[in-house]
Amino acid sequence: MKPPRRARASTLAAAAIAMSPALACQSSYADAGFPIIGLAVGADVTIELSDSRCDERPDQACLSSGLVRVTEVELLSSRDIELLDFGDDGEGLGRVRLRVEDAGETTMVVHYEDGGDEVLVDFFQLRAEEITRVEPVIGCAPGSRARERFPITAGVELAYDAVAYAGERPLAHGDLELVADFADFDVTGPGRARAPSAPGSRAWQLVGPESAPVEFVIYAPSAAEVALWPADEVPGVQVGQALDGDPVCLHEGDAGARVTVSGACAPVVRGVELVGAVPLNLGYGDVTLELSGQDRCAVSATHALGSQAAIELDIDNLPAPLEPQGGLQLGETPVEVEGELEPSDPCPIVTNLTNGSCEILDDEGHIVPDIDCALDWDWVVTHYDGRYSAPLEGPFFVGVGLTTLMVVEVSYQFLTIEFARHPPNHLVITASPDSVVADSYGCEPGAGQRVGVVASAPGDFNLNLSADNIYDAGVYSLRARAVAQAAFTSEHDVFAAPDEMIPSPTGPTVQYFPGAEARISVDYLDAGGASLVGVAPILASTDTPGAGASFRTFDLYTGTSPQTIRLASPAAPQALTVEVVDGDGIVDVSGLDDAQLSLGARRCLELTARGHDDAPIYGQSPTRPQLQLGGDALVVVAHAPEPGEEGADAFCLEADAAGDVTLDLSWGTATAQASWTVSE
Fold first, then answer.
1. To the nearest whole number, what is the mean pLDDT of the chain?
2. What residues contact residue 599 under an 8 Å CB cut-off, 6+ apart?
3. Which residues does 85 contact at the CB level (< 8 Å), separation at least 6?
4. What is the pLDDT, as a whole number, of residue 254?
5. CA atoms within 13 A on the CB side of 141
6. Residue 163, C-beta contacts closer than 8 angstroms, at least 6 positions apart
7. CA dihedral in degrees (309, 310, 313, 317; nearest 10)?
8. pLDDT tier for residue 292 given thresholds of 50, 70 and 90
9. CB 558 within 8 A of CB 345
10. Which residues contact 669 (CB under 8 A, 6 or more apart)?
11. Distances (CA, A) of 382 to 507, 620, 621
12. Pairwise pLDDT comparison (18 vs 214), residue with the higher score
């Protein structure tokens, strides 16, 4: 039996299955030891075949290997279940179509290819049963708390799905309709129905003697009231609509609401703290407002149609103080970090595979076989710049004073075919001219000897190689140039572009908030600006010892409080200055501009805190941007986003009515203002 995996499923079907623990039974074994697939009597069913994401729905079968092509499907008995056809999509997904005529059981045998040389066979037990109950899933708006009764606006179209069961076993039911009576709803398509226009209670009757009816309350849009509940997932409040105390499932019509928070806490939407009343559109569904603070907070809401609600909540979620991190702690005295090769284990001594002499005649002139006559050997040198795993290729220059890494091996060939590589025994390297130092750093398991190479002067050099287990000397050429400049780079996100820096003749400056990590790298250039290979230590220091700055491998931790960190190189005069600032270092904000929107349009803000010289400040700000809206034309987009919806992770505003709105923003010591106009 394959382990449980996530499956392809529509949103509603996935929700149905996630709420149904009995689905775990669908892959349990029958007495024959085959996975059981339950089928609903009277249904035409398509079973999906796959080796992954294949056990979340009852109409899926998990194969034991990857599928390339389905070659044959057999039913060992076809009395109650008929095989209609089978096939695959050529992309790893197979299908088997079945017609379930009566209750019964048979074994399905699936023959398929997985790209190997043999045809594989998997067995499944098909069990056809009458439906005893149906569990519905009603497509309420995101975040709705409706569970037992479903208030919906008159005339609204809703989506629905359901899972059929025989006892506790889920059944694949294909297109078999599981709603026996829609109670005045109009079916508008598969899995969709439109509510009647007249208010009142309605109850769907479902297939199966043990099925409970689905109760709907049809209401006029004006009957909905605003409602508040404690949020489930974050410290905060859930804002929604209710009808006679029951959470609304789907609403069409005016659903505007304004929420006000008082006390020592504030509403936060996607990283932006909102000041004053927060305008919302509950037509998208319930909204969860995170509250940030440490107090008992009073939350009140007013619906556009006049209803009001209030709730008090205890909030205690202020950010924890920053803590120092591991690594080399920085002080006023520069310390060396990075740039040094780590020693490996000593190299093993390899027994000579040849004596280096091809002798085909013995002392008496007779021909004798000598394996040395079929053997050859050669030096293999792989050069690295000391930082990256990719070998250096093509013409390159090493920087004077920089360390590069050579891996030296001896290659043995039999009749020109390589059959072994070993480290050199007692490797000796001499340079001509002698301005190159080569030091051994041992051997990695299964690899050659690691040699750190440093040129002390510019020029062209030959490195002469000799060892006890190779009978020819080797020569490796090296070219070196003087280092004229160290080009520092920092990255707050390895998936984004390098950080924007403030240039200066003595080296760049980059600005960070405390508690951030920056990936630091240095490239070395010659006088003409060409790149040089090699590494050197970074000399790291701070003007504020005890502020928690530290360095680990290639990552700088910016500490717990403001400070200035200096990263220098012994190989060049330039240095990188990292200015660590708190909220007081924010002197400007970008991303808030004037705008004109049409009704229903959405605009998302990408706010960036900026320090001096209009340069961005990287990392997580210790303070949030605070935004206040002046006017009634915009609403804050705070509902749970649908997959692929614009602004899923950004702070967005939506044009809700014609008019003018001012946006007043403050962040640290910076302020900004914008005017937005919404036209019909």
1. 89
2. 655, 656, 657, 658, 678, 679, 680
3. 96, 97
4. 82
5. 25
6. 13, 16, 17, 20, 23, 58, 134, 135, 137, 170
7. 70
8. very high
9. no
10. 583, 584, 586, 587
11. 33, 42, 45
12. 214
Distance in angstroms (rounded) separating the CA atoms of residues 44 and 304: 49
Residues in the chain: 680
Please state whether the predicted TM-score (pTM) of the whole model is above 0.70. yes
Distances (CA, A) of 265 to 119, 262, 650, 662: 65, 7, 22, 23
Q: Where are the domains of the chain?
A: 1-214, 222-316, 321-339+368-580, 585-679
Helix, strand, coil proportions of the chain in percent (round to 5)?
5, 50, 45
Report the alpha-carbon distance of residue 638 to residue 442 in Å, rounded: 59
pLDDT bracket for residue 62 (50, 70, 90) = very high
Query: Nearest Cα to 288, choosing from 144, 190, 422, 388?
Result: 144
The three-class DSSP label of residue 256 is strand
What element of type H or E holds 416?
none
The topology under which CATH files domain 222-316 is: Immunoglobulin-like (2.60.40)
Tokens of 605: 């803000």
Q: How many other β-carbons are positioned within 10 Å of the β-carbon of residue 618?
A: 24
pLDDT tens string 189-241: 999 999 999 999 999 999 999 999 999 999 999 999 999 999 998 999 999 99
Name the residue with tokens 């299964």.
446
| Residues 646 and 588 sit within 8 Å (Cβ to Cβ) | no
Q: What is the CATH T-level fold of the domain 585-679, as seen in this structure?
A: Immunoglobulin-like (2.60.40)
The one-character DSSP state at 371 is G
The predicted-structure confidence for 537-553, as pLDDT tens digits, reads as follows: 999 999 999 999 999 88
Joined together, the tokens standing for residue 538 give 């970074």
Token pair for residue 673?
Answer: 């203002």
Ordered DSSP codes for 187-236: EEETTEEE--SS-EEEEEEESSTTPPPEEEEEE-GGG-EEEEEE-SSSSE
The per-residue pLDDT for 13 is: 38
For the domain 321-339+368-580, what is the CATH code?
2.60.40.10
What letters, b where the CB count within 10 A reaches 16 and e where it falls short, cover 163-184? bbbbeebbbbbbebebbeebbe
Place of tokens 């349009």: 601
